[in-house]
Fold this protein.
Amino acid sequence: MSAFKSYNEPVIGIVGGMGPQAGVMLCNQIVSCTDAYLDQQHLPVILMSFPERIADRTAFLEGYVKTNPAYQIVKVIQQLERAGASIVGMACNTSHAGPILDVILEELDVRGSNVKLLNMPAETCHYLSYNHPEIKRVGLMATNGTYRSGVYETLLRKNGYVVVQPDLSFQEEVIHRMIYDPIIGIKANPDNSAERVKHLTEKALCFFRNNDAQAIILGCTELSLVLTDSEAEGMVIVDSTKALAKALVNEATYARNIRKKLLI
Amino acid sequence: MSAFKSYNEPVIGIVGGMGPQAGVMLCNQIVSCTDAYLDQQHLPVILMSFPERIADRTAFLEGYVKTNPAYQIVKVIQQLERAGASIVGMACNTSHAGPILDVILEELDVRGSNVKLLNMPAETCHYLSYNHPEIKRVGLMATNGTYRSGVYETLLRKNGYVVVQPDLSFQEEVIHRMIYDPIIGIKANPDNSAERVKHLTEKALCFFRNNDAQAIILGCTELSLVLTDSEAEGMVIVDSTKALAKALVNEATYARNIRKKLLI
């Protein structure tokens, strides 16, 4: 039972820990996206970051880990719900791949969860089409898990985009390495990764530019740490963390306004 | 009842929302301070950010608001505890002023709470003496609430420091304004405050330098957004957010190691 039953504010819940920095960045973007000049005008947010409990999403999708991380993710979502969250986002693109997301949705349904779970890749595509309607050729930078699952590819194609993606060896040696390399990768160096993976970032940008991409979707939350500008070499950078943050803020603000109206 | 009873990991709980950016920054510093290269090696953290529920701490200390924010802070701590947190930090220096903290500690005691609540100003002083034993003259930048409460002043004097603080009019017109000004202040512009309050920051640094401060304690979490370097004009900058993050990480790591040993 929540101690705050009397508050009529919809609470945003964040499944963090995938990785930990990504969850924090999503919270940060929620604060940035909110139109407020007093603390008290900001939206209520609960972040639950249990990195040890949730198996690596890409390792599962690639068959190195047997346990589907979906089951632990569902437990976190339920714990968020018990703590009062009603609108939930998962700060990890790879967890939106079919073999993980389908199990999450099914389990939430079976357990009678009432949370509204937003979909990060879907919100990112929506953000792209809404803010850059002129763009048709879109590159994707993501983990091997998201790359192989085709979650963004399918979604983008359905929406009429031409998807620019490297072949598997470039994907593994350049893009996946940017995120996962145990020495220079972003997960190993959340603080100072930009310099360490600079040569890989340049290689990746060069590939997308040479293949006439007009935009690049950062389809892994970790990449937002190294590609922070809204443009790179003439290509629009679409940050999935920012897109999900905006959607969560819109959803919570809408729900808050509805409740306020009903109370009047 | 927690859904994660089988996990023997001590969970860090953060009382956020005071302001929202400060809570997020504390989480960020916890990730940065943790020695890890895989997601799964990071510490479990729950952030609860309910900005609307908690009255402004300085407004209460200055008599503009009657309700002591301590009662809502205690509710958040209890909700963190119910969600599994055992080591708690409040991402707000002003909430450590006597009239607020004393009520929090009393209420937690009455309600039988078992959380270990770390003390931000105490951890900051500890961080200063441990990392810079040569320093004797320390400046303080804080909100009016923290300034008037004397929480840092008392603590620093007890530990043999000479405290450098401006008079009340400089405090109000320069330092408090950096944080609270509704147009240019940090709370109103968490994203791009550095440029907006630049002239006030320069005035403040000039005051402390002219008064021979060897270090400046950022005794308000918001100030970490504009004074990000570890030194400014030859003075050591001691960030209270970083100090608390390090203490929380040490405490959680220690507790985790103890539990692991007991399990063996």
User: Anything to note?
Assistant: The radius of gyration of chain A is 18 Å. The CA atoms of residues 58 and 206 of chain A lie 25 Å apart. Chain A has a mean pLDDT of 92.
